[in-house]
Design goal:
Elements lengths: L1 H21 L1 H16 L6 E6 L2 E6 L11 H7 L12 E3 L8 H9 L10 H10 L11 E5 L6 H9 L3 E6 L2 H7 L5 H4 L5 E5 L3 H13 L7 E6 L5 H12 L2 H4 L2 H14 L5 E3 L15 E4 L3 H5 L1 H7 L4 E5 L3 H6 L6 E4 L4 H10 L11 E4 L4 H6 L5 E4 L17 H11 L4 E5 L24 H4 L12 E4 L5 E4 L1 H4 L1 H12 L5 E4 L10 E2 L16 H10 L2 E2 L4 H26 L5 H22 L2 H21 L7 H31 L1
Parallel strand pairs: 4-5, 4-7, 5-6, 8-13, 9-10, 9-14, 10-11, 11-12, 12-13, 14-17, 17-18
Antiparallel strand pairs: 1-2, 3-7, 8-19, 15-16
Helix pairs in contact: 1-2, 5-25, 12-25, 12-26, 18-21, 23-24, 23-26, 24-25, 25-26
């Protein structure tokens, strides 16, 4: 027994040395836990027991064992639950598109801004020549949900030799016990591994993103093993993170369309607003600002807002206008960032008084539909950029929704007291997603969605911390805005700025929960000349012309296009005698473009990066299919398709860019 104990202690020490050298954050956590356990400040939950030739973990409070069987045999049994089949125990990083031949013919005739125009032919070819029932030659990426004592890790790793591994364990004390029994220092020596140990939500998202984006072409099917149903919520979190990835939530076609609209708008001499932080600006010092979204809390507090509207400068999302105008609430600034034509048309059709938009200052994304711009008075319109950089960073503000965009601008203009209403980013207690007049409003039944295996952007429910309630439900789509909102707080909020959250929705960092009926403002603002004053304010921070640096960058984009063309041509002409050489040359082309994107962050590089994120896993998975035959034929066909679709994207972007640089 003494030998077993000494070996366990040696294993622990070896592991601690490994983590200190390779994963210092894990080492720091383990040392801190060690001190707390020794001091009695962290009561032991578990004991490690050795009996009948194997280790087990006993819960001190309940007396129950974690394995309650031979843990060594359990580890070997896991081999039966993991295999190379593509339809078992996998996360899919792609959307399941299915096409018929007529679809492909149509898509090939469409401009690159159309959905599927540059992806369908490649996806369809892979789908037609391989199947989900096939097997992988190799398992590229693997996730362990739960370590237990870690005994199953070396069993699976030795057999499959994963390219990259993610190890998840939320119980920090249980993970510590595994350091006595699992030789992490041995099994992960010279291997790529990511650890998520007792991480909060933000930390886990960061770790998973690193794991996912490392060799992103290998993400098509991510295999996993889960120790118990205790990790079901973590699995749903992974599904959500995959579903809300940029290439899934904002495809390259949309970014290409956005660029087309921005480039057109840039020829029309609209005013672009400078969005650098204005810490010396005092305009809003004595004017409380309320930011209005179209979340369900807007309806709940509508009569309160009507009664108190003259006490605030009101910044309202276009989607909230029907609700507030019908209640005789007059906004002072209107904002919109959505570029979708049909949705904007529907919003405008529902407004009884469109003429109102000619009078009020408007801050829009430069990619909003021309229909909206035409309704407004040009002298009152101020444009910003999101995901494009033609006016450098001065007019740039990336957002997932109008809520965090409005909030950021109010922070940038140094408003001292900011109130948030209709920025719920969560469901109302009755399951409602938006204010009742919003075009996307729906009611989600919690009981019907609780047992869903798959994640849907707009129907699946996620539990998060609430502003007034401990827990509220949100959807994957609504939840995207929360970390962006919190990031804007970190970037722009100063200690002199107070933010009050009036919503019965998501908790937002550095905001103060406050029920509207508890707010006691007595001063009524003089709004007689407010619109004129706001226009004067915004004009002082706006420009209609390109400066010298911006003009140079427009020309540099043309040089960039030539460099990209060279990379594509090199790939086209490179030998492709076998799969390994073909995929190697394809990876070189991708990396060349992505490295440029990291350095310059310009539009075409972003478009192509998202495009590669979309199609590359199909290609790598296709050639990772065990049953695949006649590889040379497939290589030839796919190379032609890849080059053709890349050229289609680049040609359209070049045509649009030339309209402003000629």
């Amino acid at each position: 027994m003494e030998t077993i104990q000494n070996k366990a202690i040696q294993t622990y020490n070896d592991n601690m040395n490994y983590f200190k050298e390779k994963h210092e954050n894990i080492y720091t956590k383990m040392k801190a836990l060690e001190i707390l356990l020794d001091d009695g400040r962290y009561p032991h939950k578990y004991d490690l027991e050795y009996k009948d030739g194997y280790f087990d973990v006993v819960d001190i409070r309940t007396g129950k064992f974690l394995y309650n069987t031979d843990s060594n045999k359990f580890a070997k049994e896991t081999l039966k639950t993991v295999n190379t089949k593509k339809d078992e125990h996998v996360f899919e990083s792609f959307k399941n598109y299915h096409y018929i031949d007529e679809d492909i013919k149509l898509f090939k005739t469409l401009e690159a801004t159309n959905l599927f125009a540059t992806t369908a032919s490649i996806i369809n070819y892979c789908n037609k020549n391989s199947s989900k029932s096939h097997h992988m030659k190799e398992i590229y990426k693997f996730i362990f949900f739960g370590t237990g004592l870690g005994l199953h890790l070396p069993v699976l790793i030795q057999k499959y030799d994963f390219h990259a591994t993610l190890v998840i364990e939320d119980d920090i004390e249980l993970f510590r016990l595994s350091l006595f029994t699992c030789q992490y220092s041995h099994i992960f020596a010279n291997k790529l591994v990511y650890f998520s140990i007792a991480q909060n939500e933000y930390e886990f998202q960061t770790t998973f993103t690193q794991f996912f984006e490392m060799s992103f072409s290998l993400n098509h099917y991510i295999k996993f093993f889960t120790l118990s149903d205790r990790y079901d919520e973590k699995m749903k979190e992974v599904q959500k993170l995959i579903l809300t990835r940029p290439e899934n939530s904002y495809q390259h076609e949309l970014l290409l369309t956005k660029n087309k609209k921005v480039l057109l708008t840039l020829t029309q001499n609209y005013k672009f607003l400078n969005l650098l932080k204005k810490e010396q600006e005092s305009f809003f010092d004595d004017k409380p600002v309320i930011v209005l979204g179209a979340g369900p809390s807007l309806d709940v507090n509508l009569q309160w807002l009507k009664k108190n509207q003259k006490k605030f400068v009101i910044v309202a999302a276009l989607a909230s206008l029907r609700t507030i105008l019908d209640a005789d609430i007059q906004p002072d600034i209107v904002m919109q960032i959505d570029e979708k034509e049909a949705e904007t048309k529907m919003l405008l059709e529902k407004l009884k008084n469109k003429e109102f938009l000619k009078k009020v200052p408007c801050i829009f994304s430069a990619s909003v539909p021309q229909t909206l711009l035409d309704i407004c008075s040009k002298k009152n319109v101020y444009l910003i950029e999101d995901r494009t950089f033609y006016k450098l960073r001065k007019s740039y503000l990336e957002s997932a929704s109008i809520g965090e965009a409005m909030y950021a601008i109010v922070l940038i203009f140094n408003a001292k007291n900011i109130y948030l209403l209709g920025l719920d980013f969560a469901l109302a207690p009755d399951g409602t997603t938006h204010a009742k007049e919003h075009q996307d409003v729906k009611k989600i039944d919690e009981d019907k969605t609780a047992d869903q295996d798959s994640i849907d952007m707009d129907k699946s429910l996620i539990k998060i911390k609430g502003n007034f309630r401990n827990i509220v439900h949100t959807t994957p789509r609504l939840s995207i805005s929360i970390p962006i909102f919190n990031t804007r707080t970190q970037e722009y909020r100063t200690d002199q700025q107070n933010v009050f959250n009036l919503n019965d929705g998501a908790y937002l960092d550095a905001t103060q929960p406050l029920h509207a009926n508890e707010l006691n403002l007595t001063k009524v603002l003089n709004k007689k000349n407010l619109h004129t004053q706001l226009i004067t304010l915004f004009d002082s921070y706006a420009t209609t012309t390109f400066n010298k640096e911006e003009k140079l960058l427009l020309q540099e984009r043309k040089i960039q296009i030539k460099n990209i063309q060279k990379s594509i041509q090199t790939f086209k002409n490179a030998p492709s005698s076998n799969t390994e050489i073909f995929l190697h040359n394809y990876a070189i082309m991708i990396n060349s473009i992505i490295q440029q994107q990291k350095q310059q962050h310009l539009e075409l590089l972003q478009i192509l990066t998202i495009y590669f994120l979309t199609i590359s896993s199909y290609i790598f998975d296709f050639f990772n299919t065990k049953e695949l035959k006649n590889n040379k034929k497939h290589i030839k066909k796919l190379k032609i398709e890849i080059v053709e679709q890349l050229q289609k994207i680049i040609e359209l972007y070049t045509t649009d860019l030339n309209k402003i640089t000629q």
